[in-house]
Amino acid sequence: MSRVKKILEISSYPPPRAGWGVRVEFVKKELEKTGHVCEVLNIAPESRKIPSDEYLTARNGPDYVRKIFIRVLNGYRVHMHLNGDSPKGFILTLLAEIISYILFRPAIITFHAGPYQKYFPQERAPKLTPVYKLIFRMCKRIICNSEPVKEKICGYGIRPEKVVTIQAFSKQYLQHEKVAFEGDLEEFLKNARPLICSYVFFRPEFFIEQMIDVIHRLRESFPELRLVILGSSDHSEHIRGQISRLGLNDAVLIAGDQDHDSFLTIIGRADIFLRTPVKDGVASSVLEALSLGTPVVASENGTRPAGVVTYDNDDKEDMIRVLTASINNLDELKRKVIKPKIKDTVAEEIAVLTE
Fold first, then answer.
1. What domains can you pick out in the chain, each with its CATH number?
2. Residue 21's pLDDT band (cuts 50, 70, 90)
3. Phi, psi of 230 (to 5 degrees)
């Protein structure tokens, strides 16, 4: 029992399904399966105050601090998740790191997403350089998902050996059972020619208005084309109005937050998986689609995997051109899908957390 480790994950957590939360869910299950102890302090805006047996809630700032302090005092190692888009995340991270540091158990952090984010790297937010240096120096280890991100982190004066590159995607993501759908969803999927699938949150960085406009234009050439949008449907009212104004109610389906099996089944049935963000790095949903043999069309961000067809996100006409060419050459595109090599990176992460 002396080798049992106790980990406190501070992150969003499903539902809804989202990149960080899904990863943490896999890590938590694997830690517990191998005899360790893992609790999650949920900081997702949608669910952080909703009680659950799966995670701890944080009602407010003092409650957040209290729960971290008690657990670190009782031997937990904090594993904090953040990215370069949220100043609130910097504050939450610093609070967790300070508590861990004064109790002689420095935290581990995972810095998510790609090499260019709203406030990252230095050239995008030079005034925040002292904050990043403090965050990166106070922790025991830093996990990121690609070498370009590691390079940018080291640009803050961090020793390269402190930063561990672990791809966010892991073999656990692909474990699922195909789902047989019924009713309106099945009718929508089976009658699409072609079927485009996209996974979004209804936030500006997903460029959903642009995507809907492009679908409207593409329908002129491909009248049976349909788009199914996966992911939490919170804050989707504006987009629903756009869909209605453009007469696309029969062409675009906001399917909401699906469970893991349904999510992968829909992606596997799609003719094209469309990925619109530019700050997402190596997105897990892109790797899921490629692994299932579904061609991916995505905004160019410098980190797309081999075989992904990219377009310039700042040029709507380029997006239309690339999608048109992809639809016209679907059979060839499917033959050319390059399935990525998938490792057990959850095990790699657990090795860092428990070293």
1. 6-169+343-353 (3.40.50.2000), 175-335 (3.40.50.2000)
2. confident
3. -105, 155
